[in-house]
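At this stage, I put together a protein sequence along with its fold in C-alpha cell form, as given directly below:
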Amino acid sequence: MFMTKTVLKNLLTKYATRLYPFQTRETFKDVKGELKIEIDKCVFCGVCKMRCPSQCIGVDKKGRSWEVDPFACVYCGICVDACPVKCLYQEGMYKAPVAEKHMVFHAQEEKADAPT
C-alpha cells in the first residue's frame, strides 16, 4: 500500500529536478564562475600559478603565454585575489558543458615597433 501511494504521487506531480542544460536558472549573486584573463594587462609573473590550489594554471614567461585547464579549476578565486595587476577575473556564469576536454590558451601578441 505504501509503495503504491508513493508511485502514484511521483507520477502525478512535477519533476523535482531541471532538465539541465536545456533548462537553467539564474546564477546566485556574487557567484564565482569561469576564469578569464585580460592578456594585454598580464605581466606573466606566475603568482597565479603558484597560488592555485588545483595547479590548473600554466604561465610561460618567455613565450608570454598563459593557459588554464578548466576541468581542473575549482573556481575558488585565489588566483584572482593574488594577481598583482588584476588581469584575472571570474565571469558570473559557470563553464557550459562540453563533450571534449580542452585547455584554454592565451598568448600576448608582440607589439610592433614604432617607425623612427
Remarks:
- Helices lie at 2-12, 47-51, 78-82.
- Residues 8 and 14 are 12 Å apart (CA to CA).
